[in-house]
Each structure stands twice: as structure tokens, then as C-alpha cells.
Design a protein that fits this description.
Two copies of one chain form a homodimer.
Chain A (H helix, E strand, L loop, with lengths): L7 H5 L3 E3 L2 E6 L12 H15 L4 E9 L6 E12 L4 E9 L2 E11 L9 E2 L13 E2 L15 E5 L4 H4 L7 E8 L7 H7 L16 E9 L8 E6 L2 E3 L2 E9 L5 E10 L3
Antiparallel strand pairs in A: 1-2, 2-4, 3-6, 3-11, 4-5, 5-6, 8-9, 9-10, 10-12, 11-15, 12-14, 13-14, 14-15
Chain lengths: 266, 266
Amino acid sequence: MTTMTDHPFDADTAVERAGDRYTAALTDRWGALGGTPNGGYMLAVALRALSRDMPHPDPLVVSAHYLRPGAVGPAEVRTEVVRAGRRVATGEARLIQDGKEAVRLLATFGDLGAAAGRTDVRNAPPDLPPPEATADVLDGGALPGVSITERFDYRAARLPGWATGRPSGEPVAEFWMRFRDGRDADPLALAALVDAAAPAVLELGVPGSSTIELTVHVRGRPAPGWLACRASTRHVIGGFHEEDFEIWDSSGRLVAQSRQFALLPE
Amino acid sequence: MTTMTDHPFDADTAVERAGDRYTAALTDRWGALGGTPNGGYMLAVALRALSRDMPHPDPLVVSAHYLRPGAVGPAEVRTEVVRAGRRVATGEARLIQDGKEAVRLLATFGDLGAAAGRTDVRNAPPDLPPPEATADVLDGGALPGVSITERFDYRAARLPGWATGRPSGEPVAEFWMRFRDGRDADPLALAALVDAAAPAVLELGVPGSSTIELTVHVRGRPAPGWLACRASTRHVIGGFHEEDFEIWDSSGRLVAQSRQFALLPE
């Protein structure tokens, strides 16, 4: 039997309470270009610690500011419950390595299962062929030196331009994504997944981008199975740009929406 | 001669250092429906205090979580410089009234004048007639009991549905906006202006919405004059929704982009 903790995402975001803080270990399985831990992964570690202290089950909105690159190795997370209300609660988490703060985030939690208000969606999931009829972006492999790409399957109607050495010039992408080990996504994982695919700006021919801030809205608990994703950048100004990301579950519901503020390399 | 501090926005967001904190006073000139101070106004007060401590001039990205309604009256702002780097610096500010925290925000500052990277914009300003050829949404007046509407002029090609009692059913809006007293916008004001217009969801026939979180990206120092704005909501799910907001300056450049996470009234 496979338990949750057998999955790399759960094992590698595990936190342990140690007095007034949590301890964690950032592993080498979620490396971005250059080998530093991916920003969504660091966010998930900090958010997992904070979720232990929150009186409501689901992260609804998370705002993370990235202060320094992370490193593979031990980390601690300091948490603070800022306000615990009846319907929502807000907390803060700080991910610290070697005495230096790498990520600080604010998060408001609630209960997605209790959201009983109106629903009115003016958007549709990406129009993708079924996963089995799409191209495996990494051909069952991974990008050399980018270990996070070993953790996921990505499937698209056509291979993206960056993957074939011919960037399209259009910073948009639609594709399927899932954990390669079969773990289904949950709200905590969604908050990491929005940062787990190739940046849309790769289609502009740039090698990557540095996240300054990432805000994630978790809109629903995802159904099991493949996730349909849409990434886009519309405004690159003086090197700064946003990336918008949507995740739709296998039942066709929007389950996460994110925007990050990032800077192209000089 | 009109000095900056003659303008209500500057007078009402003024902060004074008092030992390890700043003091401020929230006035009754920025009231939302119900009379509580507008969220963008409270953000501006906290951000103005934080900007005093930051080594870089411009807020680039601000993430504010709203904890409690504010009230007209004294406030204090506690600030922390989290990390000061060569190109960007990140800080935290907490707006406190009567011993209770109302807003907590994280903000990363930089120098918009030094942003020398690539520019590639895949979007256009709202396609509006010149301001003098548009309808004055408030007809020179204000919404009764919503004092913030006395501070701005709003002009649109047609009167919005909510203003005529016939909501359109389409939660989108494009309009001109400016401070009614002639003050031009600057980066600090932009961070408040993204929350200073009618929520797009009014076109769904709801009376308003409560902001849980607001993230603002400031993308440029605005040219003087009218600002062209675009507001939209695409995903209302269980009562929770985002609102996206863009501000384009009189020279046709995107100068701010925001997204908030909000909850419709029950």
C-alpha cells in the first residue's frame, strides 16, 4: 500500500514541531534551473507548517515574497497565527535557512467545503485533447539539471517551442500536468503546482525568470486525475513581468489561480 | 500654490514616526459602503509608513491581507525591514487600531526608474472615448454614504448598469478615473486606486464584496492626467471571487495591475 508519506511531495514537505518552530529539510528533488529549490516547493514547506496552526483546513489565498534563493538542506519555519476568525483565519510563515530568511508568506485559510455562495464562471478550461492523445513534453525524461521536472508529467497538444529549441514568441501555454508518482493534488499541492511548470516567458527565448512574489488563490479541492493548466504573461515592462496560471481539475472546475511577479535575467 | 499635503490623499495618509512605530489617523473621507475606511486607503497608510524605512523609492509588489474592518480614528503602523538588497528590498507593515491588527502587508520595493530590461506588452489600454466625450458616472456628485466616491471622478462611455439600477450581468468595466482635486497619481496612490472604483461584481446585482486579500503590481510611474482602468471578475465560486484591475496612464502605458480575492455577502 502506498501511504501519503511515500510520495516525494509529502516526504519532502514534511515538517516537525520543535518548540516554538518547525524543522524541515529541503531536498534535491525539486531543483529549478541552477539547482536551487523551486519557489513553489519552498512555499509548500512553509505553508504545511502554517497549516498545522490554523483552525481552518484549506489555504484560500497565499502571498509569498521571495527574499533569497533557498538551498538543499535543513530549514526552519516560524509561524504566527495573526487572526483566527470563525470563517477565515490568517497567519504568517517564515522559511529560514542558516539563520537567513528565504521566504515570507501571509496566508488566509478557510473551509472550501463550506463555501456555499454563488457560482458564476466566465472562463473555460484549456481546450486540450485527452491526455493520452497529447505529446509528452519531456518524453518520459526530465530536463538535465532541473530535478523538479522528474516529479511531474507534462502533456500538450504540441511540443512547446522552448522544448524544441524554437521559442514561439508567444508567452502562453496550455498543458496537462500531474505528479509522476500518481499522487493526486490537494489544496496544499496546488499552491506549489502553480510554480512547477516552465515559465511562459521561455517562449520569448529567455532562459528563465526569478520570482519576486507569488500569490495563489485556491478555489476548490481538486478531483483526482490530470490537471489542465494555462500559463500566460501579457506585460513584460523593463524586465519585470507577471505570470498568470490557472489549474482546472479533471471535472472541469477551476481549482487554483495564481499570479507571480518576476524579473527576467539581465 | 497647492502643495502635496493640501491634497486629501496626502493629508489623510500622512504618518508620523513615534519611537518604534508610526502614528496615523484614518479619516472619514475614504469610506466604503457602510462607512468603514476603504481597503485601498488603509493599504496606502500602511505602505506610506513602510516606504519611509525602505532603501528603494517605489513599491513594486504589495500583498495585503485584511483582518478586520478599519474605523475612522487613530491608527498605528508597525514596520519591519525584512531584507534590504541592492536592487530590491522587502518589508512588512501592520496597521493597528485600538490594539487590534486590521491589515498586514508585505511589500517589495525597487526603483522603477532603473528598470532597464526588455519590454513586450501583449495587451492594450481600454478603448475609451476621450474623457471629455464620456459620461460622468456620478454626475459630479457621489454615492450617498460612500464618501470615497467624493474623492474621484469616474467617466465611462456609457453609465454602468449598477449606476442606473439595471446591472448588466457582465462583471466587467472600463472607465477613466482621477482624483477629483487634480492630484496626479504616483506609485503609492496607484496601490490605493486599484481598490477605489466600484467592484465589477456590482454588475451581477450584488451590493458589494469584502476584500480578503489584495495584491498590487506597480509597473511604472504614471504620466500626469486621467487614468484608463479595466476591472473584471471571471470566477465566482461558492461566493469567493477574484477581481482583476488594470490602470493605464495618459501616455498609454500599463502602470498598475492588481488582483484581489474577495467574498460576496451571504
